C-alpha cells in the first residue's frame, strides 16, 4: 500500500471477499527499467497489485525481458506459404510445379492452406480424413526429393478448410508445443462451410501461428466477411501445451519461476504488444492442479493469416478484364474490397501484405487460364491472399539480440521475399498462391539464461530483505468509554505504513483457526471508512477484547477494544420490561441480562423479583401511550420531530422511574427558579454553552446518546447537552413550551414511542409468527406471548382512539406503526430504524400494512356513517 494510505474496499467477515486489484501488470511494470528498482518499494507497486507473488513474478519477467539480449540468439527461418481453393477436386495432377516454384531459398517450412477441400454433404455431418490424407500424400510427394526431406508436423481440417505444416527433417527437433484449433463461421456458426483452421507451434523459442480461413462469398457480402474476420480473430483459441507432462512440476505453487515458463512465455513480454501476461497471472492460472489456458491468435510472436478471404473488386467484369488485358494490376487494386476495408481499419488492423503484381486468382473456367465465360460471368477478383501481423510497438530484432549482426533491411521479424500466383494448375476455378518469407525466431542460450536468472533472484531476495514492513496504528487501545446498550458507537483507527515496502494486512477478530465464526460479533471494522464500530446488545455488559492486526512479512499488532455498557430501557425485551417496575438502576445489570436472555435466574435476581408484580404491558410504554391519549387530542402531531432536550428529559424520567412533570411539558410551568433562564437563552456555539454550563451545578446527568434520525436536523450538537443538570433541562423545556406551546412535547413523546417499538430486540409481532398466524387478529393474538399480545392490543386501542379524533388519518397511522410492530427480530447491527425496516422488501411491507389495517378494523370496528 502507499505510505499513509488505507487498503481500499476490504470486506470484513474478515477479508473473505477480498479481491486483488484488476490492473494491467505489463503496462505498469514497463516503467521499471533497471534491476536496482525494488518492486516492493516502487511507487507503482500499490497500483500494480497487492499480491506478493505477482509482484515478484512480474518484476522477474520484466527484468528478463530487459536482459534478454544477453542470452538470446536469433535464427532465420525460410517459410513457403501456399493457399488454394481447390473447388472440391481431388489432387489428380502433380503439385511439384507449384510447391517448388519458390524464387528465394529452399524452404525450411512449408505451410499449405486449402479451402473447399471436401464439398460432399457427408463432410458437414461426419468427420472424414480421407480427403485430408489424399492431399497430404500429394503435398509430400511435391515437396520431397533426393536433396530435401520434409516431415509433417501437424494438420487441422474443418470440413473443407485444412492447413498443413511440414518442416525439414533436420529442423523437427526445434519444433515443440504444437497445438491446433478450428472455428466455424458458416451456417449457424457450426456447419463449417466458412471459418478457419489453425496451427500454433514453438520454433526454437518463439511462438509462430498459421491461420487458414475461408470467408463469406458473393460480391455484396462485405459486411458478412468482416464479421467472419472478427469472429475468427476473437474466438479461434489454442490450448496451452506445457513443455512436459508433469503439470504440477511446471507449476510449483509459489509462482511461475521455472525456466520453461519464462522461456516460452515471459520472454515474450516485450516482443509483441499483446496484453496477455496479466490475464495469465491473475485469471487463468489460479487453479494449481488444473492449468487451463487458451491463447488467441495474437498471443504469438509471429502470425500469418491466409486463405480464400473472398473480398472482390468493386467493378463490373468487363472493366476489370480490360484493366487486366492492359496490365494495369496496380490500378485495379483501387477497387479491391479488402484494401478498402483495411483503410477504414475495420478488418485486419496491423496486418501487412506484399505488393500484388499478379492477375486475379478467381474466377477461371476449369481446365483453362480463361476468366469465367459462363452465363454468370463472375468478375475476376483477388480472393486468395496471404497476410501477416506486425504489432505497432513491437521491439525490433536488433533490440532483442546483441549476438546477431542485423542489417536495416533485415530488422523486421517477418521479411517478405516473394508473392505470386501459379497459373499452371487448372483443376479449380481458383489459382493457387505462392508466398515466401524469412522470419526471425529466438533461441535462448540456456546457460547464460540460467546465470542471469539466478542473479535476478538474488537481487530480488536482496530487495526483499531490505524491505521489511513498518506498520503503525494511531493507538493500540480503543476505549469507547461508557455507552448505553442497544446502540452503535464508532471510532477511527488510523493504520499507517511508515515503511517503503509494499505491504498487506488483515484484522482478525476470530479465535477460531479456521476463521469460521467471529469470536465477538459486536465489533466490526470497516477499513474503507477507517472506522471501528462497537454495537451493543442486551447480551453483554462489558467489552474488553483483543483484535489482531496481522501484517504480512511483518510483526503483528494487538489492539485492545474496551467499553463499559450501562443499561437503558430501550432495547430491553418486552418480557423483561413487564417484570421490572422500579428504576432501572435498582436492578443489577447481571439480573437484566438473565431476564433478557432467558437464562436460569440467580438467587439474587429471584430475591429482587420476589415482590414484583408482573405487568400486562411494559409500564413505561403505558406511560408514554397514556400521555399521548390524554394530551394529543387537540392538534395533529408527528412521530419523528421531537425536541432533543425534551426527549432527554422524558427518557431520563422513564429510566429512573420518575413521574413525568406533565405541567412542565404541557404548559411550561416549573416550580424551579427562573434565575438561570437568561444564561441559557440563544445559545448556539460551544463556547457560549460551556460558559453557561460552568455556572450551573452539576447534578443528575442525562444519558449521552440518541440515534433517532430527526436529531440530525437540529443545529445543536448532542454533545452540548451532556453536562446539563436536570434543573437546567427543565428550565430549558419551560422556555421551549412557553414559546412554542405543547406540540414539541407531544412530538417528543410520540418519537419516544417509536423508539420503544423499533428497539425491542424481538418485535411486538415477530415477522416469523406473523407469516404463520397473521391471517386474523384473534389467531395472531393467541399465538403471541401474553405480554406481546397485550402490548399489541393496547397499541391498536391507542391507534383507534387517535383515529376517532380525526387529527391523523388511519392510513398515516398504519404506515407509521405497521413495520415498527410487525418486523423481523434485530441483531447487534440492526439498531437504527432505517436498517431494521430495510430488511423487509416492499411487497412484504405492503402485506404487513394491509394486515395491520385489518387488525385495527377487527379490534375497533369502523363507525357506521
From TrEMBL:
Matches recorded under SMART domains: IPPc (SM00128)
One Pfam entry name: Exo_endo_phos2
Highest taxon above the source species: Eukaryota
InterPro entries in the cross-refs: Endo/exonu/phosph_ase_sf (IPR036691), Ig-like_fold (IPR013783), IP5 (IPR046985), IPPc (IPR000300), OCRL-1_2_ASH (IPR048869), Rho_GTPase_activation_prot (IPR008936)
A single GO molecular function term of this UniProt record: phosphatidylinositol-4,5-bisphosphate 5-phosphatase activity
All copies of domain Inositol polyphosphate-related phosphatase, residue ranges: 75-445
GO terms for biological process, alphabetical: phosphatidylinositol dephosphorylation
PANTHER family xrefs: INOSITOL 5-PHOSPHATASE, TYPE II INOSITOL 1,4,5-TRISPHOSPHATE 5-PHOSPHATASE
Name the UniProt record assigns to this protein: Inositol polyphosphate-related phosphatase domain-containing protein
Source organism: Piromyces finnis
Amino acid at each position: 500500500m502507499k505510505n499513509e494510505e488505507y487498503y481500499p474496499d476490504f470486506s470484513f467477515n474478515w477479508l473473505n471477499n477480498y479481491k486483488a486489484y484488476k490492473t494491467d501488470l505489463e503496462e505498469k511494470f514497463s516503467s521499471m527499467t533497471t534491476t536496482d528498482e525494488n518492486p516492493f518499494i516502487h511507487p507503482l507497486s500499490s497500483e500494480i497489485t497487492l499480491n506478493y507473488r505477482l509482484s515478484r513474478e512480474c518484476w522477474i519477467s520484466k527484468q528478463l525481458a530487459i536482459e534478454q539480449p544477453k542470452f538470446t540468439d536469433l535464427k532465420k527461418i525460410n517459410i513457403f506459404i501456399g493457399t488454394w481453393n481447390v473447388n472440391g477436386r481431388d489432387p489428380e495432377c502433380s503439385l511439384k510445379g507449384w510447391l517448388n516454384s519458390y524464387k528465394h531459398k529452399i524452404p525450411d517450412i512449408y505451410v499449405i492452406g486449402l479451402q473447399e477441400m471436401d464439398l460432399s454433404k457427408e463432410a458437414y455431418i461426419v468427420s472424414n480424413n480421407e480427403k485430408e490424407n489424399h492431399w497430404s500424400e500429394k503435398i509430400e510427394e511435391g515437396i520431397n526429393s533426393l536433396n530435401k526431406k520434409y516431415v509433417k508436423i501437424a494438420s487441422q481440417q474443418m470440413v473443407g478448410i485444412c492447413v498443413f505444416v511440414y518442416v525439414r527433417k533436420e529442423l523437427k527437433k526445434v519444433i515443440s508445443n504444437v497445438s491446433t484449433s478450428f472455428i466455424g463461421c458458416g451456417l449457424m456458426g457450426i456447419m463449417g462451410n466458412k471459418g478457419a483452421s489453425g496451427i500454433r507451434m514453438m520454433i526454437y523459442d518463439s511462438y509462430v501461428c498459421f491461420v487458414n480461413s475461408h470467408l463469406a462469398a458473393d460480391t455484396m457480402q462485405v459486411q458478412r466477411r468482416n464479421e467472419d474476420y472478427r469472429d475468427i480473430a476473437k474466438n479461434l483459441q489454442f490450448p496451452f501445451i506445457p513443455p512436459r507432462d508433469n503439470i504440477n512440476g511446471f507449476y510449483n505453487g509459489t509462482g511461475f519461476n521455472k525456466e520453461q515458463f519464462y522461456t516460452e512465455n515471459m520472454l515474450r513480454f516485450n516482443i509483441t504488444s499483446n496484453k496477455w501476461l496479466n490475464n495469465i497471472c491473475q485469471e487463468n492460472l489460479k487453479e494449481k492442479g488444473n492449468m487451463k489456458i487458451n491463447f488467441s491468435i495474437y498471443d504469438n510472436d509471429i502470425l500469418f493469416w491466409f486463405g480464400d478471404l473472398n473480398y472482390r473488386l468493386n467493378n463490373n467484369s468487363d472493366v476489370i478484364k480490360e484493366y487486366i488485358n492492359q496490365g494495369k494490376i496496380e490500378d485495379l487494386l483501387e477497387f479491391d474490397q479488402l484494401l478498402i476495408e483495411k483503410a477504414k481499419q475495420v478488418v485486419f488492423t496491423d496486418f501487412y501484405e506484399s505488393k500484388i503484381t499478379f492477375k486475379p486468382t478467381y474466377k477461371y473456367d476449369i481446365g483453362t487460364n480463361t476468366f469465367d465465360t459462363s452465363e454468370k460471368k463472375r468478375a475476376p477478383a483477388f480472393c486468395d491472399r496471404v497476410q501477416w501481423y506486425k504489432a505497432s510497438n513491437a521491439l525490433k530484432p536488433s533490440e532483442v539480440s546483441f549476438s546477431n549482426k542485423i542489417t536495416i533491411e533485415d530488422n523486421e521479424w517477418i521479411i517478405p521475399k516473394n508473392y505470386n500466383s501459379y497459373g499452371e494448375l487448372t483443376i479449380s476455378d481458383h489459382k493457387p498462391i505462392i508466398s515466401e518469407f524469412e522470419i526471425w525466431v529466438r533461441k535462448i542460450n540456456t546457460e547464460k539464461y540460467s546465470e542471469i536468472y539466478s542473479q535476478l533472484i538474488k537481487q530480488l531476495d536482496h530487495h526483499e530483505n531490505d524491505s521489511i514492513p513498518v506498520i503503525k496504528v494511531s493507538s493500540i487501545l480503543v476505549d469507547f468509554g461508557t455507552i448505553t446498550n442497544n446502540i452503535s458507537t464508532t471510532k477511527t483507527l488510523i493504520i499507517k505504513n511508515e515503511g517503503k515496502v509494499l505491504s498487506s494486512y488483515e484484522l482478525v477478530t476470530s479465535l477460531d483457526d479456521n476463521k469460521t465464526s467471529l469470536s465477538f460479533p459486536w465489533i466490526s471494522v470497516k477499513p474503507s471508512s477507517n472506522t471501528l464500530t462497537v454495537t451493543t446488545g442486551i447480551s453483554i455488559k462489558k467489552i474488553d477484547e483483543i483484535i489482531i492486526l496481522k501484517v504480512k512479512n511483518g510483526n503483528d499488532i494487538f489492539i485492545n477494544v474496551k467499553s463499559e455498557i450501562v443499561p437503558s430501557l430501550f432495547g430491553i425485551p418486552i418480557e423483561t420490561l413487564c417484570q421490572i417496575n422500579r428504576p432501572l438502576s435498582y436492578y443489577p445489570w447481571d439480573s437484566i441480562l438473565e431476564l433478557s436472555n432467558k437464562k436460569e435466574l440467580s438467587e439474587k435476581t429471584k430475591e429482587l423479583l420476589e415482590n414484583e408484580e408482573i405487568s400486562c404491558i411494559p409500564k413505561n410504554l403505558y406511560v408514554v401511550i397514556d400521555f399521548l391519549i390524554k394530551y394529543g387530542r387537540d392538534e395533529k402531531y408527528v412521530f419523528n420531530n421531537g425536541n432533543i432536550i425534551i426527549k432527554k428529559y422524558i427518557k431520563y424520567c422513564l429510566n429512573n422511574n420518575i413521574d413525568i412533570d406533565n405541567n412542565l411539558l404541557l404548559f411550561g410551568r416549573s416550580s424551579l427558579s427562573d434565575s438561570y433562564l437568561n444564561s441559557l437563552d440563544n445559545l448556539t456555539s460551544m463556547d457560549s454553552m460551556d460558559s453557561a454550563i460552568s455556572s450551573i451545578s452539576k447534578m443528575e446527568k442525562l444519558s449521552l446518546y440518541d440515534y433517532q434520525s430527526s436529531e440530525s436536523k437540529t443545529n445543536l450538537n448532542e454533545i452540548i447537552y451532556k453536562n446539563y443538570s436536570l434543573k437546567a433541562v427543565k428550565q430549558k423545556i419551560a422556555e421551549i413550551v412557553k414559546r412554542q406551546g405543547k406540540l414539541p412535547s407531544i412530538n417528543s413523546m410520540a418519537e419516544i414511542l417509536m423508539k420503544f417499538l423499533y428497539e425491542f430486540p424481538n418485535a411486538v409481532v415477530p415477522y416469523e409468527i406473523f407469516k404463520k398466524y397473521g391471517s386474523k387478529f384473534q389467531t395472531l393474538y393467541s399465538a403471541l406471548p401474553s405480554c406481546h399480545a397485550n402490548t399489541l392490543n393496547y397499541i391498536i386501542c391507542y391507534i383507534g382512539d387517535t383515529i376517532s379524533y380525526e387529527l391523523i388519518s388511519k392510513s398515516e397511522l398504519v404506515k407509521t406503526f405497521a413495520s415498527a410492530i410487525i418486523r423481523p427480530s434485530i441483531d447487534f447491527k440492526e439498531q437504527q430504524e432505517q436498517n431494521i425496516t430495510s430488511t423487509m422488501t416492499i411487497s412484504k411491507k405492503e402485506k404487513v400494512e394491509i394486515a395491520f389495517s385489518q387488525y385495527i378494523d377487527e379490534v375497533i370496528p369502523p363507525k357506521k356513517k
